[in-house]
Fold this sequence. Notes:
The protein is α/β, with parallel strands linked by helices. Among the domains are: 11-201, 3-Layer(aba) Sandwich (Rossmann fold), CATH 3.40.50.1440; 224-324 and 369-384, CATH 3.30.1330.20. It has helices at 19-31, 46-50, 62-65, 74-83, 85-92, 108-122, 140-156, 166-171, 178-201, 210-217, 235-244, 271-284, 344-352, 373-376, 428-432, 461-470, 478-489; strands spanning 13-18, 38-43, 56-59, 97-103, 126-133, 159-164, 221-222, 224-231, 258-265, 290-297, 304-312, 399-401, 414-416. Helix 4 packs parallel to helix 6 and helix 11 runs parallel beside helix 12. Helix content is 36%, strand content 16%.
Amino acid sequence: MGFGMDNDHFATIKVIGIGGGGCNAVDRMINGEVQGIEFITVNTDNQALMRTNSSNRIQIGEKITRGLGAGANPEIGEKAANESKDEIAQLIRGTDMLFITAGMGGGTGTGGAPVIAQIARELGILTVGVVTRPFRFEGSRRMQNAERGIREMEKYVDSLIVVPNDKLLEIATEDTTLDEAFTLADQVLKYGVSGISDLVAVPGLINLDLADVRRVMTQAGVCHMGIGRASGEGRAANAIRQAINSPLLDTTIDGARGVIINFTGGRDMRIREVDEAASIVRDAVSPDADIIFGAVIDPEMADDIMITVIASGFDREIAPAAQNRPAAAAAPSRPSPFAARPQPVEQVRETEKPEQQDPVKQPVDEEVAEIPDFLSTAFARPQEKEKPVRPQGSGTGFHTVGTQSETGADDQTRTFVPSYHNQQPRSADAAAAPAPQPSQARPQPAANPARPAPDPVNDTPEEAEPKREKRSGRILPWFLQDNNSRSQDS
């Protein structure tokens, strides 16, 4: 009896990098010798495409762009990908798992990545998107394009990992250069892909296979993917905290219903430290979470332990185990989401109109109660008082933030307002009126001398900033710690 293994028995994993950011991330994976993956680079800029290290290159939209790029226009990128649909489908047909990586906000990646995701969905391929949001300093136009591209990606991928580049600014030092910042962004994309693909491609002591990954990531929406690496005393606990508290992501594992934990360490990896790290994850996720465990023994790890955590199912059920998603029927041609440009200013103003209404007639904004778990500590509301009377003065304690929903779609810009702002200012007569008597319907509660009431005039968002910093508890991933320490030493 022969026990020879055929390559057909291995999962076929491919990574497509599209646009400048996606191609740069693919090059870093190739240079880092990421195992068990076939790489494809796609671009409208033929000159940039020829500089990539991938042997599989697709120049899309040759008729539309003549190889000169999309000019930061997502509509051109979308048309270019549609022009080359057959060539893309030919290269990814038969793939078991496909990663699509791109930097959102430009032309080729923003417009073309959703088209590739749609092709993969029609072919029944498990598809994971790993994309970045642009830096704020790149401008509002680029940010708006990125949000539309992310929303389109979510329609077709099974799982989506979004890395906000602005998070890099929180860990950058004064000496961090622009080139280093974009290099770090490419590195994050690289580890986002390799952290998942290695689970399937690298054999382990307790093996994880494609069915395990499919179980957690099929139709999962926005995912959390983190990697931690540590050595010395408490190494497993330190590594798992890096993985679940990444400062580079907007997500955590809180409330997840599907989790993969994979440990990689030397022969001295102890069962008690593995149990300690797994317990930290168990305490954070849903009580009935489906947790899949894997372990790899790698003698080259020496004293290090590396832990990869993938969490999903924040707002939907986990897919049945080993169940392939049926291939979707070919979708009819759709209007380009980048062609019609809505007027966001008017939309935001519409959402602000209810704040001018009588608070008696206006119900409490339900959206505030639906802040995702992973944002609840970042933008925590003040504790609500028992029907407080609005203090005299107007106040300006508004915090406007762009949020991302747990399904991956970018929500409309929301304005989170402290609870006392729901009370409209009283008229001059009412302000001068004496304090309400006990016989009145709604008495004013006595002030607590130990904790003075908030001053809506002087309590500005800037003074609240240190409180938001305390919430982070974020731990720098090991692959960025060297860069940070070098910048500080220089």
